[in-house]
Specification:
Layout lengths: L1 E6 L5 H13 L3 E6 L1 H11 L8 H9 L7 E5 L18 E6 L1 H8 L6 H11 L4 E5 L6 H12 L3 E2 L13 H14 L14
Parallel strand pairs: 1-2, 1-4, 2-3, 4-5, 5-6
Helix pairs in contact: 1-7, 4-5, 4-6
Length: about 200
């Protein structure tokens, strides 16, 4: 399985790390694109360096060694000639976590000014699954219109709104819930949270 992960400059960096961790555990080939501000937010919120030479070793150091046979292919966000910028390069979809309002606007308007936006555009035009995890509050009318435009184009909108019925005890539990919900949209059962039962 091959999934593109975009990380942009919105708060909620832990969601991206937990999502990537689970994909690696499951042996997924992760194609990672991080915006400049995405890298800045990840480092400032988590002390994790997404620019490290060996990301696999960094993930093992942070989360333990049980990362399966997954791999990470890094792409420069300025490289519009990267493999994932073409529809002929097969992937199983893309998630942008967290997704800034600037990136959302680019996707919603079809304005591919960088690789994350172009890869999202390709994902939509090829009819593949695109999951957008917006992280902004409150939302203004422009944000809401862009979310609706992206959804109308086929994107799945998954706001970073963790539930509390599973009685989370840590921030990590909340991040796991969002990561689990993201991966469930790709039909991946991670058991990161207990489904609601009455």
């Amino acid at each position: 399985m091959r999934i593109v992960v975009g990380v942009t400059g919105a708060s909620g960096a832990l969601y991206s790390l937990h999502t990537i961790r689970e994909l690696l555990k499951l042996g997924v080939e992760v194609h990672l694109v991080v915006s400049d501000y995405g890298a800045y937010v990840v480092e400032s919120e988590t002390d994790f360096n997404l620019k490290a030479n060996s990301l696999i070793e960094s993930f093992q150091s942070k989360f333990g060694t049980e990362l399966g046979k997954g791999s990470i292919v890094r792409h420069n966000n300025k490289d519009l000639a990267a493999s994932i910028s073409s529809g002929s390069y097969k992937t199983d979809g893309m998630v942008i976590v967290p997704c800034s309002m600037k990136t959302l606007a680019g996707i919603a308007q079809g304005f591919s000014s960088n690789l994350i936006e172009r890869a999202a555009d390709v994902t939509l035009k090829e009819g593949r699954k695109l999951v957008i995890v917006p992280r902004e509050t409150p939302l203004n009318k422009i944000h809401l219109k862009n979310l609706l435009s992206a959804a109308d184009a086929g994107a799945h909108i998954l706001p970073a709104m963790p539930a509390f019925y599973q009685k989370p005890e840590t921030i990590s539990d909340l991040a796991d819930f969002i990561a689990g919900r993201i991966l469930a949209l790709f039909d991946i059962d991670t058991r990161l949270f207990t489904p609601w039962e009455k």
